[in-house]
Amino acid sequence: MSMDKFIGSASVRLSKKMTRIINHYLKPYHITTEQWAVLRTLHESSQIPQKELSIKTDKDQATLTKILDLIEKRELVRRIPNPTDRRSFLIEITEKGTALVEELTHFIEEIFTKIVNGIEQEKLAIFQEVLHSLETNIEHLLEEE
Predict the structure, then answer these.
(1) Are 111 and 56 a contacting pair, CB within 8 Å?
(2) Where are the domains of the chain?
(3) What is the three-class DSSP state of 30?
């Protein structure tokens, strides 16, 4: 079996299925996995420059701007003028956003518990190590560009 099929296709297929199931469970809350990733990251930070948020969530600026527009309309986040750089904004989660993240965190953990059901902890640890190694190798390749 080719590496493309063994790693590439399998990873893409798994990622799409995980996104689909998480989106299914998040639908009643009117957010997507992309929005969840931003909200969860903001919940772990206080005010964060949009560029730094883009890096932490691994989203390009255009995609992040669209996500922020949507969740700002729902009053889950707010943009604050950056006092050290008039051209940029600091992003912070609102009380409403914090409440949503706190409500959903346990729920999302339950979903992932179901996803890994029946898989031994040792295998999950190896899986995590392999994922980390793949990500590191990809980062090195991107740095070479």
Answers:
(1) no
(2) 3-118
(3) coil
